[in-house]
Amino acid sequence: MNCGVCGANDCEYFASSYDFEYETCGNRWTFVRCRRCENVYLNPRPLVKDLNVIYPSNYYSYGYESTVNKLAWKVKAVLDRLTFKKIIDILGYPPRSYLDIGCGSGRYLRLINGLGVGKEKVFGLELDGPAAKRLKDEGFMVEKERIEDAELPENFFDLVTLFSVIEHVESPKACLEKIYKILAPGGVVCFEAPNIKSLNASLFRDYHWGGYHTPRHWNLFSLDTITKVARPMGYEFAGLKRSTGHAFWLWSFHHYVKYQLGFKKLGELLNPSKCLPLVAVATLVDTIRAKLGQETDNSIIFLRKPRTA
Length: 309
Ligand SMILES: [Zn+2]
Prior knowledge:
By secondary structure, the protein is of the alpha/beta class. The chain has a domain at 11-48 and 69-97 and 156-304: Rossmann fold, CATH 3.40.50. The chain has helices at 51-54, 64-67, 70-91, 107-114, 129-137, 172-182, 199-203, 223-233, 246-260, 264-268, 276-291, and strands spanning 11-17, 29-34, 40-42, 98-101, 122-125, 141-143, 157-163, 183-194, 219-220, 236-243, 298-304. The strands form two sheets. The chain has a seven-stranded mixed sheet with strand order 6-5-4-7-8-11-10, sandwiched between helices. Strands 1-2-3-9 form a four-stranded antiparallel sheet, with no helix packed on it. The chain is globular. The structure holds zinc ion (ZN). The site of zinc ion has 8 residues, from loops. Zinc ion (ZN) binds next to loops.
């Protein structure tokens, strides 16, 4: 399997892990590190025909809004607005057109529409058919397609976002190449992804890091890796926001306590969807660590297509 970020086929063993979160399969999975760009990737990967096995019907992002606690949801809405304020600051002007890849239930589409961008310029891509149809019925420009295959206007979008998406795709490189074509000159792509250089990732490197999300995260990289491959495509680095990895912290402890130490019930108490107070503590700790410039579990990386492109 070639590296999904730089395309090289030159890798070394990095770590192993199991599907601790959903237990959809019992086999051990291997992550390797690309010697050329340092991307850490799952090798081999699940087969396309098995995607419905590794993404079971209870997968968290399906029906996410109905499962999240109402208070947590309100906090999330405030954090979303702060995140978009930062995104628009980096873009440098209010976006006139927007695309969210993996738009789910459409909460970012509505947020941007609420800032005054007409629905005919608010686009989304979502592989969950019913979710895509609901948003289309609502008037948004949403299709059930992968970014690599979607027909989108070139040199058009001021802003493209991918939240917790790029680590799931086969080739982040192909994704970024396609996005470069559709961005307007001066436009920005911003994506949030797990950070393989985080403290949590190094403490739980073998088997238990929550960020592996085995076998659903296929490429795990750092800022250095992605900027190294994005530059030759034409992108300029536009900024970085460290974001919290509260769920990854709890998942790491969950996996360690339940599977390494063998305390099943105690481990299950650490499932982040069941333990709001611990989520709040982990969020606070990572927010402070991010402010101090430490490597947290997630980063939002901003890349710009130059104005003269
Ligand atoms: Zn590579």
